[in-house]
Amino acid sequence: MIQFIRLDHVLICIPEGTTAQAREFYRDVLGLEEIPGEHPSGAIWFKIADIQIHLREEAGGNYSKRHPAFEVANLTEAKQSLISKGLAIEYSSEIDGRERCFFRDPFDNRIELIEFID
């Protein structure tokens, strides 16, 4: 049996030719720290809490519900920050013990934010 410890990284696909725009969004809008280096397949990597996000250009693109989910300390503040930067907040089914919302990056990747509640 596999014993999973934690989420290490999430690969998010972006359209070809959009690495500069992705870098601007993830670094400047979301405020993530970029991990320098020559990464496989021209990917760009960012730190987010104790995991990593890897972004890599790929041909095609589907508007999908696939997504990574990240726990945040204060979901209300996170939503206000995203809204102030022009992002639309989406909601989904309720889950006991947590509040959550979704947003999409400029490439239609769906991202979930979660705050665990009492």
From TrEMBL:
Q: Where is the VOC domain?
A: 6-116
Record-linked Pfam families = Glyoxalase
Q: Which InterPro entries match?
A: Glyas_Bleomycin-R_OHBP_Dase, Glyas_Fos-R_dOase_dom, VOC_core
Q: Which PANTHER family match?
A: FAMILY PROTEIN, PUTATIVE (AFU_ORTHOLOGUE AFUA_3G15060)-RELATED
- What is this protein's name? Phage portal protein
Q: What is the source species?
A: Spirosoma foliorum
